[in-house]
Amino acid sequence: MKWNDHMLDGSILLNQKASYLKGNGIAATVYYWGAQSGFVGNKPHKHSFFEICYVLKGTGSYWEQEEHYPLEDGSLFLSRPGHVHHIVTDHGMDLLFMAFDIDAEGCSDECKALFAKLRRARSVFIPNAQELPVIRLWTTLLLMANEMQPLFHDGISGLGLSLITSVERTFADKEPSAAVVSRSSQAASLVYQAKLFIRDNLSQPLRLNDVAEHLHISSRHLSRLFLAELGQSCSVYIRKERIRKAGILLTETDLSIKDISRQTGFDTVHYFTSVFSAEMGMPPAKFKHKFQQLHH
């Protein structure tokens, strides 16, 4: 992936329109979105927030405390609050960067716990990150911001929050027991099973009753579980999952819009286009075209 002036333009627009992001169970302040060609390094310093950086092109070194990491094309690294760090480069580099922190008042207890653990993450550097979801989200967001429309703010906010949660998933310490603990209660376990069933059956006309019958519980009980555990209704979750899968198929396959609408459970291309546009701020064909512009 190479430097694109739209990345800088996108960063400027996101600084104006996406400095505070709020969703179900999570809220975050973005202190700055950045893109710089020919970055020449900086002196040791620290922040009170998280900062992620991605090297589009160039070589150098990232230092955190006494640890040293070699930088090259595709390097992704995370600076944690309170940790002294700096970047060294002899010939400059093209760099994307973004600084954020969660807003505790707008976050669920689970969200606060996850980002508290991220502050103590053992791994802060990932080489060859070009194909990671966090990078695809980030670069797509920068490009899409260039054509922000009146109804596109929710789509930008959703993508921004997806990027931040993707940062957490990318750098969080992987502890096998954590998943077991997080699903220890019966309620959380049922919601987890429901999410798996929905994910694997998105091509079907899923309804609340269908999911409830699969779990052998009442629709009313399942509805309460989704609201309590996820802060949204089951129908909203299903719709967002359909759009999430559609986004993946649009960017990673050559399937037609008709085939994608069918695989994601929409009765007609018209209805699929309408729902996708409402969620993402642009029709699926344009979304695919803009993604290809950035990645080819």
Characterization of this structure:
Helix content is 49%, strand content 19%. It is an alpha+beta fold and 296 residues long. It has 2 domains: 5-129, Jelly Rolls, CATH 2.60.120; 177-295, Homeodomain-like (Arc Repressor Mutant, subunit A), CATH 1.10.10. The strands form 2 sheets. It has a 6-stranded antiparallel beta sheet. Strands 5-4-7 form a 3-stranded antiparallel beta sheet, with no helix packed on it. Strand 1 (20-23) and strand 2 (26-39) form a beta hairpin. Helix 3 packs antiparallel against helix 4 and helix 7 (208-215) crosses helix 8.
Radius of gyration: 20 Å
CATH superfamily of the largest domain: Jelly Rolls
Beta-strand portion reads 15-25%
User: What would you call the structural class?
Assistant: alpha+beta
CATH class type of the largest domain: Mainly Beta
The total beta strand count reads 9
Features of the shown structure:
296 residues, alpha+beta, Jelly Rolls, Arc Repressor Mutant, subunit A, 2 domains, six-stranded antiparallel beta sheet, three-stranded antiparallel beta sheet, 49% helix
